[in-house]
Design a protein that fits this description.
Layout (H helix, E strand, L loop, with lengths): L5 H18 L1 E3 L13 E6 L12 E2 L4 E3 L2 E3 L4 E4 L2 E9 L7 E4 L1 E3 L5 E2 L2 E8 L6 E8 L15 E6 L12 E8 L7 E9 L9 E7 L4 E5 L2 E6 L9 E9 L1 E2 L2 E2 L16 E13 L2
Length: 283
C-alpha cells in the first residue's frame, strides 16, 4: 500500500531531485578508473536479434497493466534492426483503457545472479513526464529490515532529465532503495552524472560491478561512483529494462521527469532503444 498520494510523492521526488542536480551533479567523463568486461566470464547476453523480445530471456516485470501514471503493455516492446525498442505513447484504444502506455521487461525466473558486472548499451527516450531505466532487484527489496543484505533496488541508470532542455538534459542518475517503498523505505542517491554527448541521440553504456564488498557504477566503462550503502546485497537479483510515466493509479501528474500531459497526445512517441544487455561473472 502506498502511504502518500501520487501527486505528493512525485512532487517531493521532483523537489529532492532538483536539489541533487545542483549539489550532487558530476561529470561522467572525469573518472580515471575503467573496466574491461572481456576480462570476466560472460553469463548472460542479448543482442536483440529477431523481431520480438526473446521469451526465454525476458518477461513482464511484475505484470502488465496499470503502472504509475500509465500502463505497461507487451505491445509497447518490439525488436527491430538489432535493437529492443520500448515505446511510450498515448493510446486512446489501449487494452487497459485510454491512457499513456509503455513497458517494463525483466529476466525474473530466467536469469538471476549475485555479484558480477552488468551492462546495457542504449539511447534514452525523448520526452517530458517519462524516464527509462536499467536496474536490478529481487523480491526481498520489500523486506523492512534495516539493511539490504537480502536484496536492494539497484538503479544502474535512470533518465528523468529530458525536460531540462539542451545540454542540461544530458544527465542520468543512479540510486539504491531497500526496505520497501513506504515509510520504512531506505534510499540513497549515488549521483547525478553529466554525459559528454547527447544521450537521446547517441548510444552510451551504463554498468554496475557488484562485489561482496561494494557496488561500483560506470558510464561508458569509466567509474563514476562506488558505495556499500545499506550493506551489499548477498542474494541473486534479476535485470530490468523499463520506462515509467510520472503519476499514480494510471493518472499522470507532475514529477521529477515533468508531466507527460504536456506532450501532444495525437503525435507524441518516445523510444527507449537498447542495443544489448550483458552480464558477467567476476573472477
Amino acid at each position: 500500500m502506498n502511504v502518500f498520494p501520487a501527486w505528493f510523492l512525485n512532487g517531493l521526488i521532483a523537489f529532492v531531485n532538483a536539489i541533487l542536480r545542483v549539489f550532487h551533479s558530476k561529470s561522467a567523463e572525469k573518472g580515471s578508473r575503467t573496466i574491461d568486461p572481456d576480462a570476466f566470464e560472460l553469463t548472460f547476453s542479448d543482442d536483440f536479434d529477431g523481431d520480438a523480445p526473446d521469451p526465454a530471456k525476458w518477461g513482464a516485470h511484475e505484470r502488465f497493466g496499470m503502472r504509475k501514471g500509465g500502463y505497461w503493455s507487451a505491445a509497447q516492446a518490439r525488436v527491430e534492426n538489432g535493437e529492443l525498442v520500448i515505446r511510450t505513447q498515448y493510446r486512446p484504444d489501449g487494452e487497459f483503457g485510454p491512457g499513456w502506455y509503455t513497458c517494463g521487461l525483466s529476466t525474473q525466473h530466467k536469469f538471476e545472479q549475485a555479484y558480477g558486472y552488468f551492462e546495457c548499451r542504449c539511447v534514452l527516450p525523448k520526452g517530458r513526464g517519462l524516464w527509462s531505466a536499467f536496474w536490478m532487484t529481487n523480491d526481498s527489496v520489500h523486506d523492512t529490515s534495516k539493511n539490504a543484505l537480502l536484496g536492494a533496488e539497484l538503479d544502474i541508470m535512470e533518465s528523468p532529465f529530458w525536460r531540462l532542455g539542451g545540454k542540461k538534459s544530458w544527465r542520468v542518475t543512479q540510486n539504491i532503495h531497500f526496505s520497501g517503498y513506504d515509510l520504512k523505505t531506505r534510499y540513497k542517491n549515488i549521483g547525478v552524472f553529466r554525459l559528454g554527448n547527447d544521450p537521446y541521440e547517441n548510444f552510451n553504456t551504463y554498468g554496475l560491478k557488484w562485489t561482496p564488498e561494494e557496488y561500483v557504477f560506470y558510464i561508458n566503462r569509466r567509474e563514476v561512483a562506488r558505495t556499500a550503502y545499506g550493506g551489499v546485497s548477498t542474494k541473486p537479483e534479476y535485470l530490468i529494462l523499463s520506462c515509467e510515466v510520472d503519476g499514480g493509479s494510471g493518472k499522470p501528474t507532475f514529477g521529477w521527469s515533468g508531466n507527460i500531459e504536456k506532450n501532444d497526445k495525437s503525435s507524441f512517441a518516445a523510444d527507449f532503444r537498447v542495443d544489448y544487455v550483458r552480464a558477467y561473472k567476476l573472477p
